[in-house]
Amino acid sequence: MPFIKDPLPFRNNNDILYANFINIGQGDCILFEIPVDGKYRYLLVDTGLREYERITAFKKNFGIPQIDYALITHPHDDHDSNIKAILDDNPRLNLWMPRCYNIRHNAFKNLFVFYFDRLIFLDWIGTAPVNLTPELSPSTKIELIGPTRTYIDELKENEIIVEDTFEINTVNGVKRLNNFIFGELDNDQENELSLILKISFCGVSIFIAGDAETHELDTVGSILFSEEEKRKNSTHIDIIKLNHHGSENAIPYILVGKTSSQYAIVTTFANVDQKKSVKFAKDTLGVEEYYRVGHTEHKNLAYINRDSVTFAIKPDKSGKKAVIVPMIYKLPTQTTGEIFFIRPSDVESR
Ligand SMILES: [Zn+2]
User: Fold this and answer.
1) Is residue 195 assigned to a domain?
2) 239 domain residue, yes or no
3) What residues have their beta carbon closer than 5 A to ion ligand 1?
4) What's the predicted TM-score (pTM) here?
5) HSE, side-chain direction, 13 A CA sphere, residue 319
6) Residues 154-205 pLDDT 10s
7) Helices (H) and strands (E) in the chain — how many of each?
8) Given this model, what pLDDT does residue 260 score?
9) Does some domain include residue 6?
10) Total structural domains in the chain?
11) Residue 317: which domain range?
12) CA of 320 relative to ligand 1 center, distance in Å
C-alpha cells in the first residue's frame, strides 16, 4: 500500500477545519483544529484510555501548542483516563464536564479535589442546542444537544438520580455544587448521561454522542430535528461517530429518515460487537464510508487496527459550503518515528 508522508491536503492553508480521530487504543480521543481569523484554536473531546504519548506525538507532529478547550463526554476510563495529564500540560485550559456524577466514581472525585477551579459543569439542556463557543461563531459552532431535560426528568422520576446540593472537600476547602445530579448509576446509565455534541463548520456537521445509548438519543431527536433547526436548514449530519463504540444498544435509530450522512467512525472497545451498528450505518443511514479507529489486543475482537482518521473540511469561497476530505494515517511508533498518511483512494472502506 503506497504511503504519502505529509502533508494532509491543504495543510498549509489556514482556513481548514481538521477533525482528528486519534487512535488511542481503546476509547475516544478527538482533536479539532479550528481556524479562527487565520489562526487555530484547539478542542479536545475525550482523552482516551491511557497511551497519552499518542496525543503528545500528534501535537508535536503538527506543531499544536496549547489546547484551548477540552470536554469529557462522561466519566468512563476509555474517555477520561488522560485528563490529569491534559490539565497539567495545558495550564490555561478549563475542562467542560457533565453536571452528573456517580457517587462511586473515584476518578471524578480526584478531579474535584485537585482541579476544582478549572472545571466547568455543563447542564442538561432544554429545547434548543446550547452554543458553547459563541466567540467562534459564525463559521464554527460547538453545540451541546444532550442530555436533555426530558431524559433527566425520567431518571429522577424513577429515583435513579437526585438533584441536590453536593459538598466536596477540595484542596482549597469545601465546595458546594448546587443543583448537582448524582446517584448510584450503573455503566449504561452513565453512558446515557453522556454530553452530546454537534460541531458545525461552514455547512458541515459532525455528531459526537459520547457513549449515549438509544434511550437518551430518543430524547435528543426533538432538539436535533426541531422546527427551529429545520427553519435554519441545519438538521443534516455529515460525519457521525457511532456511539458506545458501535455497540448494538447504542444504534442511533433517531437519525433514520431525518438525515443522510457521508461518513461514520467507530472506535474500538474490547468485547463490543460492532457488526450490527456498522451494518446500520452502511445499509440504513447509507454512509459512503466508515472507518474504524483504535486498536486492541483483545482476543475476541475480530480486528486490530492501528490507523487514525482525519477529516479535512475545506470551505469554498462563500464560506457556506465545504468539502470533506478523509485521510487515514498511522501515528509514529518507536520504529518509524513519523506519521504516515494514506490517501483515502488507496483504502477501501473498512
Ligand atoms: Zn462509557
Assistant:
1) yes
2) yes
3) 76, 191, 211
4) 0.90
5) 8
6) 889 988 888 888 888 888 888 888 878 888 888 888 899 999 999 999 999 9
7) 9, 19
8) 81
9) no
10) 1
11) 17-346
12) 35
